[in-house]
Design goal:
The complex is a heterodimer of chains A (about 325) and B (about 375). Chain A is an alpha/beta fold. Chain A is built from 12 helices and 11 strands. In chain A, helix 1 packs across helix 7. The longest helix of chain A is centred in the N-terminal third of the chain and has 21 residues.
Chain lengths: ~325, ~375
């Protein structure tokens, strides 16, 4: 009997992962989240805010064999910036504190984001896993950097536990409702005049598959996870039949600010992504982790826009 | 050049360029022998001085060479997810066209339709519109790079009338670091002419990925355009990335200093940065090929360079970091005759390790002196600049 603790169970990724794990009768899932799940599952849901002091004790009492920390998506739109920041940082502290003290946790998997590398004009064109992390721009990247620092500390303290960090490219798909996907799905997309960022994406189904794959094949280290292929933002929008509206900086800022009052909310890391772009190397994912995404970049984009014909939609 | 390290496809391309009869039926060893034989014949019989061919003849030679890489009887088997066919011819010995994986776009520039011309633009624009092909991770866009190649070739053949020496010093495969003198032009014409000279004159049109400073990344329009036509950001990470994968990298170690010198110092090679390029070449076992370029310094003669103007520019545009800007005589480039000379490759001395700092300094300086000596020699031989 293997016991797996999954944080962020209310998210689509968390729910799908739990449903996948439930198929195996040998696995018991402890689902943790403070919100109503987006995907229904049978396992018991434990209602914890991660910065609740009881959370660490809950982990120690439950004695899981593995932890999948998926509550790392940007929740500032739901909770407000400061609250999301507190929960992310204190939650990570509690989680890794418990990992440090517990004797039964053999495996920790963390869902991170490639935006921890930072984005800007001085970035290398292609980022590898051993690149320096930059948590100077934007709250979300800062939180992820703090999270990864905790992982590094915990990994030093517990060499017999495997710590897998999956740094996902921006997630895009029909089921995804994150700031970038809302931005990409606008009918008329404001872009920065004179900038055409290179981008990678990953489909939401491949995210679940990657986490599941990492649970079965425990390997320590960080891995960039992205669909094969690279495209410029202008091409992504064209594949989705969207019209790009290049705007100079001031007009762009006004447009984005105006939209954030209604539906669109653009946190710093998304703004910087559509300004500077970010491309990572995924050879370690393929050669070391042994994971191959089902969908390439073009299929991911078309699926995200609901344009993928059915014959290739089997994920 | 070591023929034995090449693949059969590469050897076939050379044989095709040299027009060796019966090449398609030859084995690899026979091909090497035939190529060496023709090279020997050329060396012994090539004493008479022929006048350099005109632009029309050079264009024709290029067209024939490029066409030999394309199999016109076969169409690319790529089909988009939506069901659009590709419609372009496949690369020789491949099932795909040059846009959809027929060649390594990061290393080899083969026009998708087998030739450069405005009549090929509709099919290229169609594929750009369909977003049908992948870009290189660094940002090279094969279709845009091809259209730029075609347009810039007018500058190369008719306007600057670039003549190239020593093209055989560039390896047909594998990494090399091209180190050139930088010209004081308002636009980096020398970077463009350097990449064009390699694509236009080599038996296999290889791409030289020329590095640009972070000012490029922070400048609107330039930020993506320089990547689409094959530029890379001048950083150790990018250079290492390309050299490890066996590509050609072009660097201008003088950097921005070359743009600030007055016309009276034309063709005086400035300090070569801090010699980082020597370290990179050593670390990745790449030969350094010094390149002397004559022409770039006269295209836009600089009248003077000013610190006050640089400060004014920074007020309007905070991203710029240059502390001196030169003021140029002319807006339109002057029709200067260009010469590009590729010198003998300098093999790395101890592969995989960093050279000691003093040796690095000495090698940097010796490469600078070598380029300076060749520039002086080329200027003497050139005659009229126009």
């Amino acid at each position: 009997m293997q016991r797996i603790l999954v944080t962020g169970a209310a998210t689509w990724t968390g729910g799908q992962l739990i449903r996948r794990l439930e198929r195996d009768p040998e696995i018991e899932v402890l689902a943790v989240d403070e919100f109503e799940p987006r995907v229904e599952f049978d396992s018991e849901l434990f209602d914890f805010e991660l910065d609740n002091p009881d959370f660490a004790h809950f982990i120690l009492d439950a004695q899981p064999d593995a932890v999948a920390h998926l509550q790392t998506a940007d929740r500032s739109a739901l909770l407000g910036g400061r609250r999301a920041h507190d929960e992310a940082v204190v939650g990570a502290q509690a989680l890794f504190g418990a990992v440090h003290r517990s004797d039964c946790i053999k495996q920790v998997i963390v869902k991170s984001d490639i935006c921890v590398y930072g984005m800007g004009p001085r970035n290398p064109s292609v980022l590898f896993e051993d690149a320096d992390l930059d948590g100077t721009r934007g709250r979300y990247a800062k939180d992820l950097k703090a999270l990864e620092d905790y992982i590094a500390t915990a990994a030093r303290a517990r060499p017999d536990t495997t710590f897998t960090v999956l740094r996902f490219a921006p997630i895009f798909g029909a089921e995804v409702n994150n700031p970038l996907s809302r931005y990409l799905r606008l009918p008329l997309v404001p872009t920065r005049l004179g900038y055409d960022p290179r981008m990678q994406l990953i489909s939401e189904t491949d995210v679940v598959r990657a986490i599941d794959h990492a649970l079965i094949n425990p390997l320590s280290g960080a891995f960039n996870v992205a669909a094969p292929g690279h495209l410029y933002l202008s091409r992504i929008l064209r594949l989705g039949h969207r019209i790009a509206q290049p705007l100079p900086r001031r007009a762009y800022d006004v447009a984005v600010k105006g939209m954030s009052r209604s539906s669109l909310y653009m946190p710093t890391h998304v703004k910087r992504l559509v300004h500077h772009g970010l491309v990572t190397d995924t050879h370690r994912m393929r050669d070391v982790l042994g994971f191959e995404p089902h969908r390439n970049l073009r299929q991911t984009i078309l699926a995200g826009y609901g344009l993928l014909p059915d014959r290739s939609a089997s994920a | 050049m070591n023929l034995h390290s090449l693949t059969k496809t590469q050897l076939l391309a050379i044989a095709r360029a040299a027009d060796i009869p019966g090449r398609s039926r030859m084995t690899k060893a026979e091909l090497i022998e035939a190529i060496e034989h023709t090279a020997d014949a050329k060396r012994t019989g090539g004493t008479r001085q022929e006048p350099p061919p005109g632009p029309a003849a050079r264009r024709e030679a290029l067209a024939a060479r490029l066409d030999s890489f394309i199999n016109h009887n076969k169409t690319c088997n790529w089909r988009s997810v939506e069901g659009h066919p590709c419609g372009l011819p496949a690369v020789i010995d491949q099932d795909r066209c040059a846009l959809h994986g027929g060649v390594d776009i990061a290393d080899v520039a083969i026009p998708a339709a087998g030739r450069l011309g405005f009549d090929t633009w509709p099919s290229l624009l169609r594929h750009i519109w369909l977003a049908s092909y992948d870009i290189d991770p660094i940002g090279l866009d094969p279709a845009i790079a091809e259209m730029f190649w075609h347009v810039a070739n007018y500058l190369y053949y008719e306007y600057f009338r670039v003549e190239v020496e020593g093209i055989e010093n560039i390896p047909l495969g594998g990494p090399a670091l091209l180190t050139a003198n930088h010209g004081g032009a308002a636009l980096p014409y020398d970077a463009v002419m350097l990449t064009l000279s390699i694509m236009n004159e080599m038996p296999i049109p290889r791409r030289a990925r020329v590095t640009g400073t972070e000012i490029f990344n922070a400048t609107p329009t330039v930020s993506h355009f320089y990547r689409k036509i094959g530029g890379v950001y001048a950083s150790r990470a990018d250079t290492a990335y390309l050299l490890e994968r066996g590509h050609l990298v072009g660097v201008f170690p003088e950097g921005v200093h070359a743009f600030q010198k007055p016309f009276s110092q034309a063709y005086q090679v400035q300090r070569f940065g801090r010699g980082g390029f020597v370290t990179m070449a050593e670390r990745h076992g790449a030969p350094i090929i010094p390149v002397a370029i004559v022409g770039s310094d006269e295209v836009h003669p600089a009248l003077f360079s000013s610190q006050i103007l640089a400060r004014l520019a920074r007020m309007l545009w905070p991203a710029q970091r240059v502390d001196e800007v030169a003021v140029y005589l002319n807006l339109i480039p002057l029709p200067i005759r260009w010469r590009i000379r590729f010198l003998e490759p300098i093999a790395p001395s101890h592969v995989g390790t960093d050279p000691d700092p003093l040796e690095m300094l000495e090698r940097t300086e010796s490469i600078r002196m070598l380029i300076q000596a060749n520039l002086t020699d080329m200027l003497q031989r050139r005659g009229s600049a126009i």
